[in-house]
Amino acid sequence: MTHAASPASPRICDDSVLVEVRGRAGHLTLNRPKALNALNHIMARRIDDALTEWEHDPRIDSVVISGAGERGLCAGGDIRSIHDDARSGGMASAEFWYDEYRLNARIARYPKPYVALMDGIVMGGGVGISAHGSVRVATERSRIAMPETGIGFVPDVGGTWLLSRAPGELGTHLALTGAPVGAADARLCGLVDHFVPSSRLPAVLDALADTTANEAVGLYATEPPTGELADQRDWIDSCYSADTVEEIVRRLLDTGVAAAKEAAGTIFTKSPTALKVTLAALRSARELGSLERVLEQEYRIACTALSSPDLVEGIRAQVVDKDRDPRWSPPTLAEVTDADVARFFAPLGRRELSFAPDETAEELGEQP
Questions:
Q1: C-alpha to C-alpha distance for 18 and 3, rounded to whole angstroms
Q2: Sheet of 17-22: strands edge to edge?
Q3: Domain extent at residue 302
């Protein structure tokens, strides 16, 4: 399978993403509320089409993305479809990720304000289409997470880039445990910028019609309720700075702190292979220097996971059969070798995701 950038894909016409213009703002509404707005390939292409249409339109000052329904912006990718694809040995998921990851990078570099209303549940792929935006808004209902290790996968959509840049080892804690955070902790970790009570979101949307993005949000932004992570930094930074998952767990259990022991228990329920690959990916992301380089790495990891047993088993246990009893292979951290981990980072040859030089952060002047 040889990839090329896809500039001229046919225009996608369906109602899974509602596209409209209100005044000087372009609005994207994820419209699968019964599926908690889970993202699929058509939706990713629909968003990309709209961004292309609006990028050079002088009538559009900003882009706004939100989710239909009351439960959240987006619960992530359509993992049941990924499960079926992986079981059949297909490549539809790899094709989806290829376009999705390029969309994530595009959002991060979009030349107009990109306002993400991260109300309710925002997980996995939902983080990818929101947390790379330039104006990120959380509410008291926000629950933001990268829970991939629980399904035998690794934080993707630029998640390892975002979490690797969180203060201290907060990102490592969130990546390994998959723990969700509210508005204050998400802001502390660099995943959101502003807190707006959910009751004020309609007013923000109205203001965006004729006001700049920062002014519209600023009119209604306030301080969020107190979070938890700031008071837990000491044990989180001390424990998660270890070089191996085994040592992280040992430190967590030895702290004598109840929250640390609980975190260790949570980690023990996750895929051992996914945990070790996630830690390696986070450490590498700190050194790679740009979102694009990290997305290239995540694509290698994701494509390898597609043919690994834990992804199918994890989705089966959590989503398909819902027995919450995954049988990981290998079943313990000690049995996951360095070679097992290295396999996820191996080049894909002609199937690589790669960004042209003029698409990289270095060319755009971003500092690592």
A1: 28
A2: 17-22, 25-30, 62-67, 114-118, 135-138, 194-195
A3: 17-350
Residues acting as catalytic residues: 77, 125, 148, 156
Q: Is the peptide bond before 326 cis (omega within 30 degrees of 0)?
A: no
User: Is residue 163 within 8 Å of 278, Cβ to Cβ?
Assistant: no
User: Is residue 83 a contact partner of residue 316, using CB atoms and an 8 Å limit?
Assistant: yes
Task: Dihedral sign for Cα 83, 84, 90, 93, please.
Answer: negative
Q: Assign residue 265 the CATH number of its domain.
A: 3.90.226.10
Counting the structural domains of the chain, the total is 1
- Contact criterion met (CB below 8 Å) for 80 and 87: no
CB 275 within 8 A of CB 176: yes
Averages of pLDDT over each 10 residues, the chain, 368 residues = 42 81 98 96 97 97 97 94 92 96 98 98 98 98 98 98 98 98 98 98 97 97 96 98 98 97 98 98 96 98 96 96 96 98 96 77 42
